[in-house]
Amino acid sequence: MIRVVQQSLLGSILSNMLLVLGCAFFTGGIVHYKKVQVFNKAAAVVNSGLLLMAVMGILFPAVLHFTHSEVHLGKSVLSLSRFSSCIMLVAYASYLFFQLRSQQNFYSPVDEEVDTCENSDEEEELELTKWEAIIWLGILTVWVSVLSGYLVDAIE
């Protein structure tokens, strides 16, 4: 069961960092077909650096385990895993501090050029209100927990 949890963590890291970002780019390209999309390069560099650190934190203990080059069987992999998890936790906490406190304007949305075909006077209406979004979040959270329960029962 521990192996399932480890693989689930790896899958969630990769899906959140790669799949969600790729889907956002793809959907943005479909929705804003004739417009030029603008992305914050510095934020992308920070996110890719965190992704690289996460991959290395998972990859290095696995390489040590599969090469059988450790001095004390089992203890080297465990200590390297604990050390890399502590480093990743500190890096994530500093990233959150950097994003939420010290550089708030750094992550503000970049102004996109307005297309000449559209009226600039028209404002886009919100598709969901704040409370509708909270209600949907609650419903989907309950749904995911129910499906997770079925998944765990199927694995056992």
TrEMBL record:
Record's GO cellular component terms:
endomembrane system; plant-type vacuole membrane
One Pfam family here: Na_Ca_ex
Q: Which domain of life is it from?
A: Eukaryota
Subcellular locations according to the entry? Endomembrane system
Gene3D superfamilies according to UniProt: NCX, central ion-binding region
Query: Record keywords: Transmembrane helix included?
Result: yes
Question: Where is it mostly found?
Answer: membrane
The reply on keyword Endoplasmic reticulum is no
Q: Name one GO molecular function term.
A: calcium:proton antiporter activity
Q: Which residues cross the membrane?
A: 12-33, 45-67, 79-98, 133-152
- Kindly give the PANTHER family that the UniProt entry links to this protein: VACUOLAR CALCIUM ION TRANSPORTER (PTHR31503:SF22)
User: What's this protein's name?
Assistant: Vacuolar cation/proton exchanger 2-like protein
